[in-house]
Amino acid sequence: MNVESKQAVDLFGPAQIGNLNLQNRIVMAPMTRSRALNHIPNSIMADYYSQRGSAGLIITEGTSPSPNGLGYSRIPGIFSKEQVEGWKLTTKAVHEKGAKIFIQLMHTGRVGTPVNLPKGGEVVGPSSIQVKGETWTDTKGQQPYAVPREMNSDDIKHAIGEYVQAAKNAVEAGFDGVELHAANGYLLEQFLNANSNQRTDSYGGSNENRNRFVIEVARAVSNAIGKDKVGIRISPYGVFNDTGAFDGIEEQYEILSKELNSIGLVYAHIVNHSSMGAPVVPESVIQKIRKEFKNILILSGGYDKKRAQSDLEDGKGELVAFGRPFIANPDFVIRLKKDQTFAEADQSKFYTPGAEGYSDYPSLN
Ligand SMILES: Cc1cc2nc3c(=O)[nH]c(=O)nc-3n(C[C@H](O)[C@H](O)[C@H](O)COP(=O)(O)O)c2cc1C
After folding, report:
1. Checking DSSP bridges between strand 141-144 and strand 15-17, what pairing results, if any?
2. How many CB atoms lie under 10 A from the CB of residue 16?
3. CB of 343 within 8 A of CB of 35?
């Protein structure tokens, strides 16, 4: 795009998504922090999120709509009464700071072990294909990922119902909307990706069929809480959790974007983990998504102030998400604006329980 087509848009200026007014175009990216003991959100989580309330939009850590989706230790859920009550602390505290907040609905699917699941929970996925490697459990240390049970059509209907109920619960808990986590190899992407979905029924075997589950979830959730309250995160070409590229991937995301656009989702949020060592996401697929999906696009991955401002001006997206910089800099937005120095996060505390390395980073401002 040439200089003439630059748009006058300010990273720190107000923006709108659906009916929501954002105080700026900066999004706090969803980040799992594993502080939810017994999978119930608590007051230190409310502290952590409210400290970061100078963002325009906060997207919470991945939160399970189902007991089956709690594949990791201490990730929160949004399917029980206690979880809804727990999340109210966060939504209230964040709104008092002026930010809006979406909850990321993350069903871990095959990325899990029964050791981490509550009683009655089960590791399920589109196909019985195990993720390579091991995952942390608080009771038995490292454990191999389980071989998931292939979901039958009743399981699929049940899971769609769980997303719908979780979205309604999110609204009750005070969230401004939900982000469907269809990225990074969790359940929704497990259906999208030909390496994890080898079904031969109407949910696998072709682009349209692999898209079907995600589209059905998006439509059902939009019908339940309103399309203006539903965004989605996608990661074409991502490799996390044994995903990776496959034949026809760009065409599939093109079709998916068109469908999501016709449902009217409020935003699409594109993952790019090349700054974390993942393969570069080709510009070609991003352009296809941009062309078919007419609503808000959220950019993310390794952004700094200059590139964020420049990509907004080039019309590549409307909002920019920042992840890691928010961890050690609760007042990240103000530091970014004033060109102040950033604190470095202690990576050894990314997923440990308690306030340390979480809600105890000081603000400069
Ligand atoms: C500690 C940590 C936890 C993360 N958890 C999630 C998550 O729950 N859901 C998600 O979509 N992405 C997750 N991500 C990815 C981030 O949202 C973001 O895409 C990534 O950090 C790249 O952006 P950055 O370069 O601004 O950090 C996580 C990243 C980190 C560092």
Report:
1. unpaired
2. 11
3. no
Q: Is the pTM of this model over 0.90?
A: yes
Sign of the CA dihedral running 291, 292, 298, 302: negative
Mutate to test the pocket of ligand 1, among 26, 27, 32 (most ligand atoms within 8 A of CB): 32
d(C-alpha 204, C-alpha 85), whole Å? 38
Which of 107, 209, 118 has its CA nearest to residue 160? 107
307's CB contacts (< 8 A; 6+ apart) are none
Q: How far apart are CA 180 and CA 178, in angstroms?
A: 6
| CA–CA distance, 87 with 107 (Å, rounded to integer) | 17
Q: How far is it, in rounded angstroms, from Cα 358 to Cα 89? A: 17
> Measured on CA atoms in the order 258, 250, 131, 33, is the torsion positive or negative?
negative
pLDDT score, position 1: 44
pLDDT digits (tens, 9 = 90+) for 179-195: 999 999 999 999 999 99
Q: Whose CA is nearest to atom 5 of ligand 1?
A: 31
Per DSSP, 361 falls in state: P
User: Which of these is catalytic: 186, 253, 303, 358?
Assistant: 186
Q: Model confidence over 234-283: pLDDT tens digits?
A: 999 999 999 999 999 999 999 999 999 999 999 999 999 999 999 899 99
Residues pairing with 149 in the sheet: 124
Tell me the HSE value of 333 on the side-chain side, using a 13 A CA sphere: 23
